[in-house]
Every structure is written in structure tokens, then in C-alpha cells.
Specification:
Order of helices and strands: HHHHHHHHH
Number of strands: 0
Shape: globular
Number of helices: 9
Strand content: under 5%
Distance between the termini: 31 Å
Length: 204
């Protein structure tokens, strides 16, 4: 892969990681779950609108010719989450209390629960992005993004990139880091599986 293409992928992926981080912070700062879930959707909307590269939004389109791009996209998303959430930790240390409630539940889930919840999140993410890419109606694009984000958050489905953002805000020691890495790794694998599966089921 050419250096220029690697650079392009990383830039677009880092930007997407930042946007998911912003959405996560908006949710954490909102006491109302429904409103917070609605506000989180700003991240995915601008990712789609600005054609950023989000792992969970693109992995369903993987094929034999572009598979090597996806580790770069995941890495860029991770870098974007780490940088943006590290800055948020510095400026809003009180956010640790809000994220602790979320992450303490996630790290206690067994592998089966995490896998199933991540699988369904992957399905929804592909449908949101595919709807955005295939429809000509601005209202349909916006509605698709908002409703998918609200559904996966209110349902407790596991989104790997959002979990990256939460993890950066949460981690205080090596044990926390190991537990968060487990959550991110499992949700990454099953987000991908859900997204790829639903795309193949919908192929004509």
C-alpha cells in the first residue's frame, strides 16, 4: 500500500475516532438516557456526512482487494479516541464518575454476552451506513443514523469504538486496562462479524 494511501486512511480514521469520542462525552454528560443517546448520534452523522472512516461502519464492505485497509482504520479510530479522550480527562476529571457506571457493567459481562451484544451492534451499524450511502433522501439518511445509534445504546449493544472512548476515560491502572482491552477486542470481532453477516444476507 502506498504511503499516500496509508496517510489518507489514518487521517480519515483518526477523525472518526475523535467524533465517536465527542458523541460519547455528550452522552456521559446527559442525565437523561434517551436524550444522551440522541446526542451521541452526532458522531456517526458527521462521520457519514464527511466520509470519515469508522471501522464499524466500513467493515461490512470488506472484500479480497481491500482487507488490508481495515487494521489501519481500526488503529486510526483508536488513536483518535485516545487523543481526544485524554484531553477530555484533563479538562473534565469529573467525567470519570459517569463512565465508571458504564464500564463497571461492561467488564463484568462474560464473553458470550459481550459477543452477542456486539454482533447485533454490528448489524445495526452496517444498516445505518448502508442506508446513508444508498438513499437520496436527506431525511432518511438522518433518521437512519439517529435511530440506529439510539437503539444500540438504549439496548446495551456493544460498539467497539465507543468502548475505546469509554475505556480511555475509565482506565486508572493495569488491571483496568486489561479488562477494557478484553471488552474492546471482543466487541471489535463481533461488530465485524455482525456487519459482514448482514451484508451477505442482504446481497441479491
Amino acid at each position: 500500500m502506498r504511503y499516500s494511501k496509508v496517510k489518507h486512511i489514518l487521517k480519515k480514521s483518526i477523525a472518526a475516532g475523535v467524533m465517536i469520542g465527542i458523541g460519547a462525552v455528550a452522552k456521559l454528560c446527559c442525565s437523561n438516557q434517551i436524550v444522551g443517546s440522541f446526542l451521541f448520534s452526532i458522531g456517526l452523522f458527521f462521520i457519514c456526512n464527511s466520509k470519515m472512516f469508522l471501522f464499524t461502519g466500513k467493515i461490512g464492505y470488506i472484500n479480497k482487494t481491500n482487507w488490508s485497509e481495515y487494521p489501519l482504520i481500526w488503529l486510526g479510530n483508536f488513536i483518535g479516541c485516545v487523543i481526544s479522550m485524554a484531553l477530555i480527562r484533563l479538562s473534565k476529571p469529573e467525567i470519570k464518575d459517569a463512565v465508571s457506571d458504564i464500564m463497571s457493567v461492561k467488564i463484568q459481562k462474560d464473553i458470550a454476552s459481550l459477543s452477542i451484544l456486539a454482533l447485533f451492534c454490528g448489524v445495526l451499524m452496517f444498516l445505518a451506513v448502508d442506508n446513508y450511502n444508498s438513499t437520496f433522501s436527506d431525511n432518511s439518511k438522518l433518521f437512519g443514523v439517529i435511530i440506529v445509534v439510539m437503539v444500540f445504546l438504549l439496548s446495551g449493544f456493544e460498539h467497539s469504538i465507543a468502548n475505546m472512548a469509554y475505556s480511555v476515560l475509565y482506565v486508572s491502572n493495569i488491571d483496568d486496562a486489561i479488562q477494557c482491552l478484553r471488552v474492546v477486542a471482543i466487541s471489535t470481532i463481533f461488530n465485524a462479524l455482525g456487519s459482514i453477516t448482514i451484508r451477505n444476507l442482504l446481497k441479491t
